[in-house]
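Hi P.,

Sorry for the delay on this. The queue was packed all week, but I finally got your sequence through. Input first:
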Amino acid sequence: MPSLGTLKAFLDCLEEGVMFLDTGRRVLDINSAAARMVGRDAATIIDGLCPTLFAGTACAQDCELRGRCSLVPRTGEDNKVQDIVLKGSDGRDIPLRMWAMLLPPNRTGIYCAIILRDRSRELELEAELRDRWRLGGLIGRSPAMQDLYQRILRAAASGANVLITGESGVGKELVARALHDNSARSEGPYVAVHCAALPENLLESELFGHTKGAFSGASTARIGRFEAANGGTMLLDEIGEISPATQIKLLRVIQEREIVRVGENHSRKVDVRIVAATHRDLATMVERGEFREDLFYRLRVLPLHVPALREHREDIPLLASKILSDLAERYRRTELRLSPDAMLALESCDWPGNVRQLFNALECAAVQSVGAIIQPQHLLDETAARGRAASAQNAATDFPARGLRQVTRYYRTPQTAEEEWALIIKVLEEAGGNKAKAARLLGMSRTTLWKRLNRNSPR
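Then the structure:
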């Protein structure tokens, strides 16, 4: 049985901070790492109240509201995780992750242990990964998305017109914005027009502007979107919806680089790069006589196709993580995470509405869930049903490490203990050493990953 001095020395060697509380949330003891993280001397912390130490944070507010440590999990609950930010003595923000461990009754009066982890380096690594796996608002580490990023950057270096195609909800607007932001026109204006949202008689005025009295209600002169975008980029979203008459006028703008306001008879020069986007098959529309062939080829100098979400399912965990992070900030919630079964449900769906549908499904789940972890029952019925079917199929396999079901979509399924170990190490390296992120990618809990890492490496 180790002495108290030995245990104290052991706790002081840990990188994670540990605080011991009684039932009244009074700090009974604290290790060196925890004192360093909160920027206080241990002697000034002991006998003080934990909520006072973290005053102003969501954790402290919840604790005061409940009258007990809100992080201590109830029977059958998963560990509750709370992210907070403290202000260091040098004014620097210190991001911390906290969770609690309920201890068995003892003579010391210790009720629970609060574990603290400094997330500074973790957030730096995540930022580096996000920069590597994203372009503007686009996110993806799959080969399909990385190829798209390269084509966007090559197109951005040119001043030629671009036609962006892809299904509804894939993020064509984000591609257009990335083109502008990475181009020589990035300091100029970026103007977007949704062609399907305006009737024909208003679309012409919206694009080219009008003079005073040009039509009923035109009490003042107004510049159009082309003039507003002068020196920058113009996105014509849903270009396949414009009428033949507007197609002719748009063709003249592209050819002559000048516009004529409604009600005027003289032209005005404009310097605009045109980016068009559509979910329709313009080539087929040209064959049917619904879209001008000359306009089609003028717009399609540089074609960019955005893949559907079902074509790069391996990006769903990364997309879901970013969406949940944004939703947690919007709804002022603690960190939102998906359980392995909920993640499997998302990966099993075809997502005909693509990323937009994924966002809506996660927003619904975020509203339905109470804790930090989203379970399959919080998802929409059709999504949860796909997850149950996938789980049943997965449970029918003989592979012992079923927790690795997510990564086997893009790695060869491990068949031996050696291959399983190699796969875990590979994913852990790709996660930058972040065990929580690696566990999510592997589709297992952090506890399961910890147990497997603590086994002896296969010989």
